[in-house]
Write a sequence for this structure.
C-alpha cells in the first residue's frame, strides 16, 4: 500500500511531460525496508498529511496512510530538479 500511494502521488503530482518517476526498494541494516520514489518535480513538495478529523474529501489522504503504515517517512530534495519521498518499515526478525 505504501508503494502504491507514493507511486500514485509521483504520477499525479510529480509528473513532468516526457519524464517518469523512479521506484527503489532496498534493505537497509539492520532489518529495514526502504521505499523511495523520485520524481522531477522538486518544486512541488508533498503537503503535510491530513488528520483523520479533517473535512472529508475525495483525495489527499495518501500520505496519512503512509504515515500510519510506515515507521518513518520523509522527503529529500535534489539533485535539482528532483525530490525523493521515502518511507521505512522495520522488519521483525
Amino acid at each position: 500500500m505504501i508503494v502504491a500511494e507514493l507511486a500514485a502521488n509521483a504520477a499525479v503530482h510529480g509528473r513532468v511531460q516526457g519524464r517518469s518517476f523512479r521506484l527503489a526498494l532496498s534493505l537497509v541494516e539492520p532489518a529495514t525496508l526502504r521505499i523511495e520514489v523520485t520524481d522531477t518535480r522538486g518544486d512541488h513538495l508533498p503537503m503535510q498529511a491530513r488528520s483523520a478529523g479533517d473535512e472529508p474529501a475525495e483525495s489527499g489522504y495518501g500520505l496519512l496512510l503512509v504515515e500510519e503504515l510506515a515507521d518513518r517517512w520523509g522527503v529529500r530534495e535534489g539533485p535539482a530538479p528532483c525530490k525523493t519521498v521515502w518511507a521505512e518499515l522495520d522488519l521483525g526478525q
About this structure: Strands lie at 22-28, 32-39, 72-77, 83-90.
